[in-house]
Specification:
With 191 residues, the protein is of the alpha/beta class. The chain is built from 6 helices and 7 strands, in the order βαβαββαββαβαα. It is elongated.
């Protein structure tokens, strides 16, 4: 069976290429708006499943990987800031606080209709940095297209007191440990 990553994210594509060399990327076109009273965990899970299901309609004999990430500080969702000003403001609002990243993974077998899904949580405790330090970070490593506005795998690690979770790939955007288990459940051994 072919493997399809239901994403246009270069970050997810790069992560998946660590464990699988032969796969396609197809961008799903779905509405990613949060439903009324939907938790961040439920939002992330729903979006991953919807992405996979959207691609399954066009690919009847494939294993389709859907994923999404929702980040928040308290009840405020962090976004992909898109601009330098937005990134600085968002990172300033996170200082000395804990941000939670809910990264969903879904593996859909479009031949059988079987769906495996999970939401992995990662915590990031931000340091107390001043605006000049944050501005220097943003100028050095603009991460306007990343949830939260930073890249943990780069200089962004300097923004944190600590990070915690089971798989560091989860924070970057694709829980590879969980995905490997799901692939094995479908008879695909990575090693």
């Amino acid at each position: 069976m072919k493997i399809i990553l239901a994403s246009s994210s270069t970050y997810r594509k790069n992560l998946l290429s660590k464990i699988i060399t032969d796969f396609e990327c197809v961008s799903p076109d779905i509405d990613e708006s949060q439903h009324q009273n939907e938790t961040f965990t439920a939002l992330a899970k729903r979006l991953a499943i919807e992405k996979a299901q959207t691609i399954a309609k066009q690919s009847p004999n494939a294993l389709i990987i859907g994923s999404d990430q929702v980040a928040c500080v308290g009840s405020t969702q962090l976004c992909k800031p898109q601009t330098k000003t937005n990134t600085i403001q968002q990172l300033l609002s996170c200082q000395n606080r804990t941000a939670y990243f809910y990264t969903s993974i879904c593996l859909l077998n479009s031949k059988t209709g079987d769906i495996q899904s999970s939401v992995e949580r990662y915590e990031t405790q931000f340091r107390n940095l001043n605006e000049q330090q944050i501005t220097q970070y943003v100028e050095h490593e603009p991460a306007y297209d990343c949830a939260g506005g930073f890249k943990m795998e780069g200089l962004g690690i300097a923004l944190f007191e600590k990070i915690s979770g089971e798989d560091p790939n989860t924070l970057i955007g694709l829980p590879l440990i969980k995905l490997i288990q799901m692939l094995e459940n479908e008879g695909i051994c990575i090693l």
